[in-house]
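Minimal example, chain plus zinc ion.
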Amino acid sequence: MSLPTTPQGWAIRLTKILSLHQAAHGLPRFPIDVAALAQDFSRQVFPEAPITMVGGLDLSKGVEGMLMPHPSGSGEWGIIYNKAIRSPGRRNFTLAHELGHYLLHRQANPGGLQCTNRNMADWDSARNRIEAEANTFASYLLMPLDDFRARIKGRAIDIDVMTELADRYAVSLTAAILKWMTITDKRAMIVVGKEGFIDWAWSSEPLIKSGIYYAARQTVIELPAASLAARDVDMETGRHGVRHPAGVWLGSEPVHEMTVFSPSNDQMTISLLLYPDRAPSRRELAELEEEPTLDSYDKFMGN
Ligand SMILES: [Zn+2]
């Protein structure tokens, strides 16, 4: 059997093997044990370049994980996460991401690869192809599409549903939300805030089509002052969320914001923004953006 060449192809191949293996041994399908999978699979399929080291190391701040060749030149590989990361979900996603690099990129990068926490949110293949590929692989491996779709079918998406999925697949809340964002037909955005500023944000395809997205990471943008993310609210209020009038977040529409606070992690906030299903038409937008004074003038003149 020829080997896959794409991130999705690799994830589907491993998913098939895992399904058979778990069923044969009466084991649960999820979450996926990346460490065991990486070692067993690589030993069988690439005996000349097996993964023999999986685990945590003390890496520099900002480095999430790495793919590392054995220093002896034996051909063995290690997939590593930064021990400073406490979240089991992030560790698991990082290992899957590094396994993706191993399968797809080790030949082009014999010296290995080092990945920052920003790379873990790099889904734009034009900007960083190999990081986007490793993330796609990890996402499809840990959260297979058919299972993910079955779990969200007919449900209103909120932080509780996303938390449930993050637990099921042993991934971070961010990874579960990003997965949903790549497949949904809803107009949604995830905004990760750090110390009062937008660290990064990502819009779903339908929302990008409405022209609503934060373009670059280079510019420093404050979290909107009226947003939940910027306010001092309790966890419960944050999870449940608030319906903002137009003008708090990007665009001229009301937005439902739900926010999770992670004070231990650089004052990090994760906001899920849900925009109305239907984008306003050009005409409605023009009306929304009209000056209020002009509006009253029109009314006065009977227009
Ligand atoms: Zn990477």
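The first helix runs from residue 7 to 24. The domain at 7-142 is CATH 1.10.10 (Arc Repressor Mutant, subunit A).
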